[in-house]
Design a protein that fits this description.
Distance between the termini: 38 Å
Order of helices and strands: EHEEEEEEEE
Shape: globular
Structural class: mainly beta
Helix content: under 10%
Protein name: Putative LRR containing protein
Length: 91
């Protein structure tokens, strides 16, 4: 099954697997207790992001290329880059 029109995505207590074609049209992202083991970049469509206890592993980045309308971040580790907050963690 191909999910190339996905607008909203929630993932809890799991590892995040990134497929650009699946996630490129997302407007809502909710990750909780998630580990990210590779770099992930979301483009212009993102409107709402909720990140709770997300761990971006070393040498990787979670990047959202456009400011969001709604943003909630709590207890995250690693390199997270979102325009309205510059970057969190990382170097």
């Amino acid at each position: 099954m191909k999910c190339d029109r996905l607008k909203s995505f929630t993932l809890k207590n799991n590892s995040f697997i990134y497929y650009k074609s699946v996630y490129e049209k997302l407007t809502f992202l909710d990750l909780e207790n998630v580990e990210i083991n590779h770099s992930v970049v979301f483009n212009e469509n993102m409107k709402s992001v909720r990140l709770v206890n997300v761990h971006v592993r070393m040498f990787n980045v979670l990047k959202i290329n456009k400011p969001c309308e709604t943003l909630y971040i709590r207890g995250c580790k690693g390199n997270i880059v979102i325009p309205q907050v510059a970057s969190i963690g990382g170097s």
